[in-house]
Amino acid sequence: MSGEVNPDMALKWVTVGFLCTGCFWFLVSSEKLWQKLEQEHSRLCPWECMIFVQMWPGSFCVSLTSKLDCILTKNAKNWTIHGLWPNDIKECCPYWQLFPSDLTNLVSELNSHWPTFTNLTSFQFWEKEWKKHGTCAGCMETLNSPNKFFGAALFLRTKYNIDRAFERAAIVPSCTWSYQLHTFADILRPLLGPQYELQCVTDGQQGRQILVQIKVSLFGNFSTGCFPGTSMDISPYQPCKAQRRIFYVPPNLKNPRNPCP
Ligand SMILES: *[C@@H]1O[C@H](CO)[C@@H](O)[C@H](O)[C@H]1NC(C)=O
Ligand SMILES: *[C@@H]1O[C@H](CO)[C@@H](O)[C@H](O)[C@H]1NC(C)=O
Ligand SMILES: *[C@@H]1O[C@H](CO)[C@@H](O)[C@H](O)[C@H]1NC(C)=O
Predict the structure, then answer these.
(1) Are 79 and 248 in contact (CB under 8 A)?
(2) Which N-terminal stretch is annotated as signal sequence (predicted)?
(3) Helices (H) and strands (E) in the chain, counts
(4) Ligand 2, atom 10: nearest CA belongs to which residue?
(5) According to DSSP H, which parts of 49-180 are helical?
(6) Tens digit of pLDDT for each residue in 164-217?
(7) Centre of ligand 2 from the C-alpha of residue 205, in Å
(8) Is 176's C-beta closer than 6 angstroms to any atom of ligand 3?
């Protein structure tokens, strides 16, 4: 029998071989198809950059509307999260509600790092941020639930840690000492990359320029450098100007609207 090929068996093996090759190509091409779908899907986000915004509690109340009470707590000693904002888009899904149960495992971290300093409750503040910004982030798999969205912001606060950067550079809050914009820029650029913005408010009586927020523009994968373009900002927070010195004021728990009288 040796040397002889059973034609039936040969046909079977050819068939099996054929099917397996088909199978292989099917797997390879479906993998490719999948990657293509994933790429196309990631392009479905109507935004490219998102802005991670951290706030300095010491000056937050300087321009706070009188419609809200300002209540600084002990968390006011550190930079806090204001929000994570997909660029140039708002309120993407008004029916996507945030529930307290979405945040159970994050609530204590959120309370320390994303507190409200007004008489809105923390949850009301988070709910506003979710409705306005979070619902627009859900086109990214890494941000497609409240838990992922709020968790990402907490992660970003650790990654782009302003407290630590300032501490290392001996930048301390003061009512008398002020800084030049380039001093902040030298410290922040290595941490935040080229696309970031320092925002200032002007205090009423003395007209001082006061640091209030730091925005960093990120790609969907959370790395820095995304160019957000220019957009009109009508808030009292404006880009800090290099021509004038910048005050970094200590939180004044008794007089938060006028921390350095
Ligand atoms: C917050 O305080 C302001 C000013 O005192 C008041 O008018 C407003 O009703 C309060 N809002 C809430 C949600 O408690
Ligand atoms: C606040 O910032 C200081 C300075 O970096 C740091 O030592 C401290 O751990 C921070 N506190 C919190 C609650 O993150
Ligand atoms: C993040 O995304 C940007 C833009 O797509 C890309 O240039 C960059 O290499 C990515 N970074 C990492 C760490 O994957």
Answers:
(1) no
(2) none
(3) 8, 5
(4) 78
(5) 57-60, 107-113, 122-129, 135-137, 146-159, 162-168
(6) 999 999 999 999 999 999 999 999 999 999 999 999 999 887 899 999 999 999
(7) 31
(8) no
